[in-house]
Amino acid sequence: MRTQITRRTLLSLVLGLLFASMTAMGSCPGDFQVLLGQLQKQAHSMQDPSTLLDPYMRIQGLDFPKLRERCKEHPGAFPSEGALRGLGRRSFLRTLNATLGLVLRRLAAIQQHLPEARGLEKPPAARLSTQDLEMLKMARLNIHGLRNNIFCMSRLLGSSWDAAEPTQAAPGTSPPPTPDPGAFQRKLEGCRFLHGYHRFMSSVGQVFGEWGKSPSQSHRHRPPRALQKEARRPRPSRSSKRLVPRGQLPR
Ligand SMILES: *[C@@H]1O[C@H](CO)[C@@H](O)[C@H](O)[C@H]1NC(C)=O
């Protein structure tokens, strides 16, 4: 169990560095399938509770089965998968971008209340805790990396998509009202929020997965002539180009 966590942690860190460096480069992949593959990978890694919720639970001392049961997403805190599916691509990207903005703000608030930030004594498992704190920082970098790719995808889809798609209602992502919560209640709200975040990212991954299945739409940013030309040639196998396997990875 312990080694499994460590290996997953390392994998997440490596992915985090990868996305962070991509962000630092500030360049956009010009190819739709490459960009979509990156977005799918990012969503897939972010849906994993070991990247954020688990470290948070350990840092906050909430890592007990009874508390895990109570740590469930507030209904409506994040857009549902159905609502996301109902959005056009640009609206979906805008919703995702806006929601990630809220998550970043919430993570900043959460980090302000961590024992480390308040200068309190470190819990006994200090080594693990340090690693967990790094995971939280990495999660924020990853979100910035994803946002960068959302920007790239919005640009790739072009402004013509604006007119074609109705703008849907803003995401229902306002955090639930928590009037002056005690410290414990605040910790619990944090974990419910993060639970929702991972579920949301899983739904986002599902929707991005659908994007790869509709070639006519995914190639709409190309000039029509190029499309006609391509239609006469035999198409290369789509599955060979896909970067992320469709099925769930073993957890
Ligand atoms: C994402 O949201 C930020 C504000 O939080 C905004 O500055 C940025 O332009 C948005 N990006 C896209 C692609 O909509």
TrEMBL record:
CC annotations in GO: extracellular space
Keyword Signal set for record: yes
Subcellular location: Secreted
A Pfam family it matches: LIF_OSM
GO molecular function, one term: growth factor activity
Signal peptide start and end residues: 1-26
Region of interest: Disordered: 164-185, 211-251
GO biological process: immune response; negative regulation of hormone secretion; oncostatin-M-mediated signaling pathway; positive regulation of cell population proliferation; positive regulation of inflammatory response; positive regulation of interleukin-17 production; positive regulation of MAPK cascade; positive regulation of phosphatidylinositol 3-kinase/protein kinase B signal transduction
InterPro entries: 4_helix_cytokine-like_core, Leukemia_IF/oncostatin, Leukemia_IF/oncostatin_CS, OSM
Coiled-coil intervals: none
Disulfide bond is among the record's keywords: yes
Lineage: superkingdom: Eukaryota
Record family assignment: Belongs to the LIF/OSM family.
Name of the protein this chain belongs to: Oncostatin M
